[in-house]
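Researcher: Last one for today. Full complex below.
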Amino acid sequence: MIINSYTNEDKVLLAVDCIIFGFDLEELKILLVKRSFEPEKGKWSLIGGFLKKEEDLDVAAIRVLHHLTGLNNIYMEQLYTYSKVDRDPADRTLSVAYYALIDIAKHDRELIEQNSAKWFPIKSTPTLIFDHNEMVERAMARLRRRALSKPIGFELLQQKFTMRQLQKLYEAILGKKLDKRNFISKFNSFDILIKLDEKDMSSSKKGAFLYKFNEEKYNRKVEEGFNFKI
Amino acid sequence: MIINSYTNEDKVLLAVDCIIFGFDLEELKILLVKRSFEPEKGKWSLIGGFLKKEEDLDVAAIRVLHHLTGLNNIYMEQLYTYSKVDRDPADRTLSVAYYALIDIAKHDRELIEQNSAKWFPIKSTPTLIFDHNEMVERAMARLRRRALSKPIGFELLQQKFTMRQLQKLYEAILGKKLDKRNFISKFNSFDILIKLDEKDMSSSKKGAFLYKFNEEKYNRKVEEGFNFKI
DNA sequence: ATTTTTAAGTGTTCTTTAGACACGTTTTTT
DNA sequence: AAAAAACGTGTCTAAAGAACACTTAAAAAT
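Model: Here's the assembly. Have a good evening.
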């Protein structure tokens, strides 16, 4: 029987914090909550929670995210583990940061209000508790890199989107203007979008064609060696 | 006084495991230890240790690495945190994996023997305990990506190296043959190496010129917008 | 001593990719 | 009727990546 082999080792509290990205009005946003308990009660914070004995980190992150947004099946990735000894003044706590990409149109507005959460443009992120600003910066850097090599942008858009919206999204992620013609022709060369017969009429009376991401085709192409690269 | 605000939360054991890379005889290698305690005593394992209350993860990883190799000032990067509930049969333990790049010529051979450690070609990695094989794979993938965009290869070579050694290193990391002329002219175009007047005589009687990485120049160029890209 | 083998060193050409760049159409607003 | 806003589309140029072969030096083999 091999139990308690490590009884002399220190145990620690382990938190999970989520950077939740959304895209709205041509801007990248993150979802923050007003902290409801001490320490730092009343300050803005990432949404988080403690790891429970019976869950792994992914499950904890999904739980935390679901609790705040009501959403399931969200794109989510472990980012980094923060461990400075005094990062949380109340107790020795480590935190594993996750970032998530959601379709901002889908989240549950009531739940967000109940949790006194709010969307902030990433460029106007307030001062957050502990090392949370550092987490946001790292998440942003990771998102920028990922977006260049994986088609994760679609996670932030509605299922149907216009080319213009897609371009604005990439501009927001990469932090620079892109040439309309070059952008579209590059994306078309990938051949992973489906052009629909519908038009989006929300931003002009002429209307703009809607597209969908063809995930099956993308996966097939990846198997054959295709490499998404913006 | 804000203490014990989280008293009801579960605490866990947190380990640090290191994937230590070296480069020798044109091969990438990793350093493994024969585990000296239960569970899984006698099996091959990454070198690891438990996080102590008074250290952060980086410090713990440095401690573990120093304990095994006698080395300081090693290139090291946090990789990923592993958290499956049953990953360690003895107790609920999470592990934060780090990977390190060392100059294999410099490590302390005696210390390694004392710890019953051994270098394995990465391609002949044995079956390891727990999820350690998964860690090695992730480390390898990370190394491959990093090597493309940061000049970290030099960490694996001696201070002075030949162009051929550098090329063989990149071939080992990227897992493919590179064209000698293209490789050298690309590296020369970066203008971050110093060509020395010395020659390395170990692999031919004609001798091959030795080079050094000019780190100051590299840093200066980075400030000016230079982007290392193999 | 002649030939063969091994490693070092060096440029050019072709192909592919990235980046710059402008105008006609539709529809609404003034 | 003119102006303004959003949509959609193609070509040319520059830069980077990939393919490719021979000469020299020295030692080893015959």
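Chain B touches chain A at residues 2-6, 9-14, 37-39, 50-58, 78, 80-81, 83-85, 89-94, 96 (CB under 8 Å). Residues 149 and 228 of chain B are 5 Å apart (CA to CA).
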